[in-house]
Amino acid sequence: MESYLLDWANLLLRWLHVITAIAWIGSSFYFVFLDSSLVPAADPKLRAEGVTGELWAVHGGGFYHPVKYAVAPPQLPPHLHWFYWEAYSTWLSGFALFTVSYIWNASSYLVDKSLVNWAPGAAVGVALCFLVVFWILYDAICQVFGRRKNGDAIVGALVFLLVCVAAWLACQWFAGRAAFLLVGAMIATAMSANVFFWIIPGQRKVVKSIEAGEAPDPIHGWRGKQRSVHNTYFTLPVLFAMLSNHYSFLYTHKLNWVVLVLMMFAGAAIRQFFVMRHGYKLGRNRHPAGYALVGVALIVATAVWLTPAPSEAAKAPAAAADYAAVSKVLEQRCVQCHGAQVQMKNVRLDSPDAVKLHAQAVYQQAVVAKTMPLNNATQITEGERALIGQWFQAGAKTP
Q1: pLDDT tens digits along 5-36
Q2: What is the pLDDT of residues 69-101, one digit of tens each?
Q3: Bridge partners, residue 58, by sequence
Q4: Does 180 lie in the same domain as 116?
Q5: What is the extent of the structural domain holding 388?
Q6: Which residues form the Urate oxidase N-terminal domain (predicted)?
Q7: What is the rounded CA–CA span in Å between residue 222 and residue 237?
Q8: What span, in angstroms and rounded, lies between the C-alpha atoms of 194 and 88?
Q9: Integer Cα distance of 257 and 170 in angstroms
């Protein structure tokens, strides 16, 4: 029953997390587009009011005319919309999902005893430290170097180095699947913390100054814009890390941390292409195709690098793949979690009828995706996976 309830919690939290993430990322992408697409206001009245940019757009049968005040409008409207619950809801739902999926069963999902054989509580504690320590170091980098000459380049280089170190440590200490997700979660935590500690508080100070009839300090707008830009470059790397746990060929590689860094860097480069593309259309910068080409080239190179070598075991005659041989593999590698005592995901593999019922899932998880056994805790071999594959392809016959 516990497994069944956890599955429902996982499903509903994942659904909620995707919905809130779409809302947050969608609004973030829109405002990056908006900032990059603004042109000087044509109406002298708007310029006199302090409007520094405007955009005309058509969508859904209507015309829209957003304008931007660099520091503050001459008068605040009675209703001012704030963008922050999208970020907070995304982090809260994501952390809840991480708790249900990984922390609740840390011994199975976080711990890889071939790397570090630590207690589940210790693994959870270190995992949570990744979220906190990364934010502290990232925030310190931004505050120390952010306002210096060439500060953006310095911050970018140091944050990239910090991500590389974190990816290496995570892959040395945790199961590969969890390590990839953890690196994504720590960056996502920094994104939400940017909103919580800097962007929204800065905007509140600006509003408070306007309400008091004082001139707002432009530093709040500058700092908020800086952190918002960081968030947009973090987005695609985080999304890759969150999706990667479905593809074992990524996180089971012996240099899995390099795979993660390359793919995240590719995502950031592709995001740079889209950000600069808006400016290119207005003649503000040269065509950013080079960034997209770098990102795509890295993805292709990584895919080529990870191409699996042909397995000699896979060339064994299909006649050897009968149910008797397969059942021995299942008994040794799978029944611990899918037998009479425990039925993870409501799957049993301790009888011919049960194996026949779940043959498709066994083939997909153990042979195609190679996500089971989880973290390969029972040390199934490539030859045994090939045996199951041959049995399935021959018709998955049982007595």
Answers
A1: 888 898 999 999 999 999 999 999 999 999 99
A2: 877 888 888 899 999 999 999 999 999 999 998
A3: 63
A4: yes
A5: 313-393
A6: 3-305
A7: 24
A8: 11
A9: 8
250 Cβ neighbours under 8 A, 6+ residues apart: 176, 180, 244, 256, 259, 260, 263, 306
Cβ 106 vs Cβ 123: under 8 Å: yes
Tokens of 225: 């814009």
What is the radius of gyration, based on Cα positions, of the chain? Answer: 26
113 found inside a domain: yes
The pLDDT tens digits of the residues spanning 242-295 come to 999 888 889 988 999 999 999 999 999 999 999 999 889 888 899 999 999 999
- Do residues 8 and 88 share a domain? yes
374 has pLDDT over 80: no
Are residues 167 and 212 located together in one domain of the fold? yes
Q: Are 106 and 120 in contact (CB under 8 A)?
A: yes
Residue 51, strand partner residues: 69
Locate all alpha helices (DSSP H) within 38-175, ordered by sequence.
44-49, 85-98, 106-109, 120-145, 151-173
Residue 100 falls inside a structural domain: yes
57 forms bridges with which residues in the sheet? 64
Single pTM value for the model = 0.84
Query: Is residue 41 pLDDT above 60, yes or no?
Result: yes
Coil vs helix vs strand at 235: helix
- Confidence check: pLDDT of 318 > 70: no
Whether 208 and 286 map to the same domain: the answer is: yes
